[in-house]
Amino acid sequence: DLLRIIGQGVERKQAREEILRLASFPSLLPSPVIELDAAGQVTYINPAAEKLFPGLPAMGQSHPLLHGAAALFAALRRGERQDEESQEARIGDATYELHISYVPDIKLIRIYVVDITRRKQAEQEIYQLATTDSLTGIANRRAFSAVLAKELERARRYGVPLALVMYDLDHFKHVNATHGHDVGDAVLQAVTGLVRNNIRAHDVLARWGGEEFMLLMPQTDAPAAGRAAEKLRLAIAAHAFDKIGKLTVSFGVAAFEPRDDQTSLLKRADDALYRAKAQGRNRVEVLAGEALAK
C-alpha cells in the first residue's frame, strides 16, 4: 500500500508539472497567442499579444484582429468547421494570419497570430511584376488578355455592350531613331498619362507591345467608343511633347458582337487600326460588325 500511495503521489506531481508546463507554453512563444472561452470572451493573451495588441482584452471580438473571425469562431463551436482553421486580418498596413484551433473538451478557442506583412508585400510585388508594364505602369499584355476574356464572357452572358480600342503612335520608330530611346520612353509615358486622364475609372488600359496600346471599354457601344477615341486623338495631337514637339496617334475601334471570341474581336480592332494607318494616320476608324460576317 505504501508503494501504491508513493506511486500515486509521483503521478500527481508529474501531472501537475505537465499542466504547469503546458500552461506556460503560450507565454513563452515570441508570437502572439490569444484564447477565448465558451462565451467568446478573451480570457488570455500572452506577453507578445499584449505588446502588439494592447487594447485587445478590453475590446474582445470587436478588435480589428478578431472582428472578421466571429462567424468562424461560432462555426468551430458548432462543429461545422475543422478543428483548425486559418484566416487573415488587416490592421493598418499590417497583415496577420490567424491560426485558429478549437479544443472541444474545454470549449476553448486558441489563436496563434503570425505577422505575414512582408510576405504579402512580396506577393504583391511579384503580382505587379507579372501584370504591369514596367515603363508605363499600366496593365501588360498578359493581364489585359485575362481581363478581356472575363469582359467578353460578361458581355456574352448579359448582352451588355463592350468596345475595344487599339491605338498606335504614328511614326514612333522615327522618334526613337532621331531622339533616342530615352526620349521615346518619355513619350510613351506622356501619352499614357494623357490617355489615363481622359478615360473612365472602369476602362482598362494596357500596353500591347512596343508603341501599340489597348483600351477596353465596358458598357460602351461602337459610336460611343469612336467618340471617346476621337477625344483622345485630339488631346494627344494638341499636346507639346518634350524634345519632339507634336505627335499623332491612330485609333482602331471594334465593338463586341455575339459571335465574337477574343481572337475575332482583337483582329477586328487591329484591322480598324490598319485602315486608319492606310488612310493617312492621325484618325479614328470604327470597324462595325459587318466585318465579322465576311
Could you characterize what this model shows?
- The chain is α+β, with helices and mostly antiparallel strands and 294 residues long.
- The protein is built from 12 helices and 10 strands.
- The strands form 2 sheets. The chain has a 5-stranded antiparallel beta sheet. Strands 7-8-6-9-10 form a 5-stranded mixed beta sheet, with helices on both faces.
- Strand 4 (94-103) and strand 5 (108-115) form a beta hairpin.
- Helix 8 (172-179) packs across helix 9.
- Residues 2-8 and 17-24 have low confidence and may be disordered.
Helix-strand blueprint:
Blueprint: H1 2-28, E1 33-36, E2 42-45, H2 47-52, H3 56-59, H4 64-67, H5 70-78, E3 84-91, E4 94-103, E5 108-115, H6 117-131, H7 141-158, E6 162-169, H8 172-179, H9 181-196, E7 204-209, E8 212-218, H10 222-237, E9 249-255, H11 262-278, E10 284-287, H12 290-293
Parallel strand pairs: 9-10
Antiparallel strand pairs: 1-2, 1-5, 3-4, 4-5, 6-8, 6-9, 7-8
Query: What is the count of helical runs?
Result: 12
Query: What's the rounded overall pLDDT mean?
Result: 88
Give, in spatial order, the strands making up the sheet with the most strands: 2-1-5-4-3
Main pleated sheet: 5 strands, antiparallel
Low-pLDDT windows of residues? 2-8, 17-24
Helix content: 40-55%
Structural class based on helices, strands and sheet pairing = alpha+beta
Give the SSE order as H and E letters: HEEHHHHEEEHHEHHEEHEHEH
Q: Could you tell me how far the N terminus lies from the C terminus, measured between alpha carbons in angstroms?
A: 103 Å
Overall shape: elongated
The total strand number stands at 10
Q: Determine the strand fraction and express it as a percent band.
A: 15-25%
Q: What is the radius of gyration computed over CA atoms, rounded to a whole number of angstroms? A: 31 Å
